[in-house]
DNA sequence: TCCAAACAATAGAGCGCTCTAACGGCGGCA
DNA sequence: TGCCGCCGTTAGAGCGCTCTATTGTTTGGA
């Protein structure tokens, strides 16, 4: 397998190794004659620069370390995709490992990633302690995505989940709903913010909040909806922790003979491909995850290239995507005329 | 950021660099006294071996290059997850890039991955020409997943898609269906095999085949179902290219007033998380993708460790997962009694 | 005609590690 | 007592590249 080295190319082209190096790096100060000779020799030998050796010698890396919480979750897969595309455009490669939502494993992964001295580190939905991230930040720039964190050395990219929750509540209230419950995301990332946004929005509309403990999974949605039907059967609308949770809730509602949206309106969060499926057609809050991945890379590059020293905390605006799981409540015509003026079309 | 080197540790521990190297590699022939001193010095300095330098010097890599076709597709995300777990267990890291289903990009990605001289290359659903894979195989062991390929240097992991197609048809025929159509996967990986399996199985049951050109996407399912309803409205069962395709088909069927499975039974392929959603509850053919990812790593390690010289072509047996989108046809009771004997329960 | 400046090319010292060969010191054996 | 072999340790030569400093070689201006 012994691949050709720079030395081989130099020998064949009748020049020094240094000259080959210059050609490989597209230096302008090489005569076109020599350049041609080197290029010819290189292609003849099938030469390809050795990335590791290059990075060792030049001590700047073209690798970005990526820790992703969980690839089973479509949301993170999309984030990785955004990261990959942006990195690819800038000539970077990804060294990727999954953390499986376990703290110990994440710590180990961060350690491994750092041992490659990457140009930067991107943490997608990390659950590890801020202290650990800060430790990593002393070796290499770090960006955390979907995880707010106040450390001055760690850039973050998140969506404004409070605003997102408000969008959902406002939409439902605008349709005339008054009993709007929230199946929350438990201890998951951003769950606290969505809860807070929900509470604030409900207060704003003068409605009583009702939060059911749940989590970011389909099963969580099933159980949450079941609990809700038991405790508060009069509820007419549901704001779910995320799309997966919403789909679970819908399944449970339908199993108990209710129709969505006729008997219950449901809103999800994330606007994953799942929500967009015609068979599901879920009204949801859009989080621009592809864009978030791209931005994470951009922030990293700013640090790598020394264009920025101060911390960056990007918060993207979510938007509402109305599909077919939300509608006016059925029997509340008498209580909603005042709101109708706000909903022209 | 200047991190500690082996030299620093050696100096601090009062030993040679070579000795530190031995300790870092857990060599047995180091006195426990010196070992302790080195370990102490290393932790004090926060020393971490430099993976790149190590690989350059020892010329064996702990990195596996991974080309993944498309992370948006849950199927591939799951494959990557399996690969990641197996690799992690064996102390390998993944260098990952996506090919976006484009040949040119895949070629470029393979080139980039090789420039890191990885221990091996895993191609998940590649669309690139066999010739290119063979070229890569001269630099490093290569395993292709979900892509059969006859080259003697390229190991493969696939499912037996012909058998999978047969499972689907046998299930539907067993329920009493006679007009079973297939929305195919076009030029996609394994699509030709599923077509062939479908044809063979239909022939086996003495049924007339009907193949509608489609693709591995939701939209393909929508369009395919529409075309089917136009051309062959008497069809009572549908075997779809994959789950995504099936979900699209179901949406279209429901939009045209049909009920699944009352008016049309639908079977998918892959058994992705999507199919398992209670709201979808799709009968489908299970492909053990997590396992396939693990096996890919295992094959690579066999080559890397020199335990095998001959080509390996693993073909996994798919299995049928019956859920709620398949049932007996409605009005064909008179034509099916002969089949009922085959379906005891 | 001469020298400075500009340009092309190269030598050689690393980058942080591994690994072979060799070293010194010790105990065991004749 | 002398020699051999073993063990723990180390020197030093790379791995394939980058990059600074330096050497030649032209060119242009005075």
Characterise this structure.
- Two copies of one chain form a homodimer.
- With 345 residues, chain A is an alpha/beta fold.
- Chain A has three domains: 6-49, lambda repressor-like DNA-binding domains (434 Repressor (Amino-terminal Domain)); 63-159 and 288-315, 3-Layer(aba) Sandwich (Rossmann fold), CATH 3.40.50; 161-287 and 321-341, Rossmann fold, CATH 3.40.50.
- Helices cover 45% and strands 16% of the residues of chain A.
- A six-stranded parallel sheet of chain A has the order 2-1-3-4-5-11, with helices on both faces.
- The longest helix of chain A has 16 residues, at 74-89.
- The termini of chain A are far apart.
- Residues 332-345 of chain A have low confidence and may be disordered.
- The interface between A and B is large, with 53 and 53 residues.
- Chain A binds a DNA duplex (30 and 30 nucleotides) through residues 5-7, 15-19, 21-22, 24-25, 29-31, 34, 49-50, 52-59.
Question: How does the SSE layout of this entry go?
Answer:
Two copies of one chain form a homodimer.
Chain A lengths: L5 H8 L3 H8 L7 H14 L5 H8 L4 E6 L5 H16 L3 E6 L4 H13 L4 E5 L5 H8 L4 E4 L8 E6 L1 H15 L4 E4 L7 H14 L5 E3 L5 H14 L5 E4 L2 H13 L9 E6 L2 H4 L6 E4 L2 H16 L8 E4 L2 E3 L15 H4 L5
Parallel strand pairs in A: 1-2, 1-3, 3-4, 4-5, 5-11, 6-7, 6-8, 8-9, 9-10
Antiparallel strand pairs in A: 10-12
Helix pairs in contact in A: 1-2, 1-3, 5-13, 8-9, 10-11
The structure holds a DNA duplex (30 and 30 nucleotides).
């Amino acid at each position: 397998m012994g691949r050709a080295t720079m030395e081989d190319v130099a020998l064949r082209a009748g020049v020094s190794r240094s000259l080959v190096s210059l050609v490989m790096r597209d230096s302008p100060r090489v005569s076109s004659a020599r350049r041609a000779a080197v290029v010819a020799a290189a292609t003849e030998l099938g030469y390809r620069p050795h990335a590791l050796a290059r990075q060792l010698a030049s001590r700047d890396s073209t690798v970005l370390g990526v820790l992703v919480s969980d690839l089973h979750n479509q949301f993170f897969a999309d984030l990785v995709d955004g990261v990959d595309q942006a990195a690819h455009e800038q000539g970077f490669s990804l060294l990727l490992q999954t953390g499986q939502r376990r703290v110990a494993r994440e710590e180990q992964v961060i350690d491994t990633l750092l041992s490659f001295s990457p140009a930067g580190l991107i943490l997608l939905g990390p659950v590890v302690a801020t202290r650990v991230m800060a430790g990593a930040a002393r070796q290499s720039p770090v960006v955390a995505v979907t995880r707010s964190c106040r450390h001055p050395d760690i850039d973050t990219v998140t969506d404004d989940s409070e605003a997102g929750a408000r969008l959902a509540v406002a939409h439902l209230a605008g349709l005339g709903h008054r009993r709007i419950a929230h199946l929350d995301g438990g201890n998951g990332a951003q769950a606290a913010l969505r809860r807070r946004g929900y509470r604030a929005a409900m207060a704003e509309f003068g409605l009583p909040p009702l939060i059911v403990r749940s989590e970011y999974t389909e099963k969580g949605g099933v159980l949450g909806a079941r609990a809700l039907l038991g405790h508060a059967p009069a509820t007419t609308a549901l704001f779910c922790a995320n799309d997966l949770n919403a789909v679970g809730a819908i399944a449970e509602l339908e199993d108990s003979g209710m129709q969505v949206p006729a008997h219950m309106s449901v809103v999800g969060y994330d606007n994953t491909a799942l929500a967009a499926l015609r068979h599901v057609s879920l009204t949801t809050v859009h989080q621009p995850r592809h864009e978030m991945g791209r931005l994470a890379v951009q922030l990293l590059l700013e640090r790598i290239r020394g264009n920025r020293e101060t911390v960056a905390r990007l918060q993207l605006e979510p938007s509402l995507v109305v599909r077919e799981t939300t509608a006016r409540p059925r029997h509340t015509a008498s209580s909603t005329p005042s709101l109708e003026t706000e909903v022209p079309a």
